[in-house]
Each structure stands twice: as C-alpha cells, then as structure tokens.
Write a structure and sequence with these properties.
The protein is mainly β. It is about 0% helix and about 55% strand. The protein has a single domain (about 5-70), classed as OB fold (Dihydrolipoamide Acetyltransferase, E2P), CATH 2.40.50.
Length: about 70
C-alpha cells in the first residue's frame, strides 16, 4: 500500500448551489474540490483551513478526502 500524502490550504471560493469550491494550497496552484469529497457532503466556508489528498478526475487534478482543520 502506498503512502498517503496530505496537502494543506485555505478555501478560497465556494459555489454552494453547484456544490464545488476552490482551495488555495500552501504551495502550488489552486485546486478544485467537490462537496462529495467532504465527510458531511457540504462545502467548507471561505477562509476555512483544510487538509486534503490530490486525485484526478477527467484528466484534471482535484482535491479528495477533504477535512476541515480546527
């Protein structure tokens, strides 16, 4: 089994109607996230610090396993 690498960042923009959000990572380019990648199925609020894994969907990098940090 491979090692899981967590990335960290802050939610920059949310579209609750369409259930997606963007994360500004601590380093690198912004990352797309979808509400289906969160434990409660909702988008984190703008400004919320999150941890996530990077995945791929339709050839694009996305945030997966998004967790809100305290």
């Amino acid at each position: 089994m491979g090692t899981v690498v967590k990335e960290f960042g802050v939610v920059k923009m949310v579209n609750a109607n369409q259930r997606w959000f963007f994360i500004r990572p601590d380093s690198g380019s912004d990352v797309f996230g979808h509400c289906s990648s969160t434990a409660d199925g909702r988008a984190p609020a703008v400004g919320t610090r999150v941890a996530y894994e990077l995945g791929e969907r339709q050839g694009r990098v996305i945030a997966t396993s998004v967790e809100v940090l305290p």
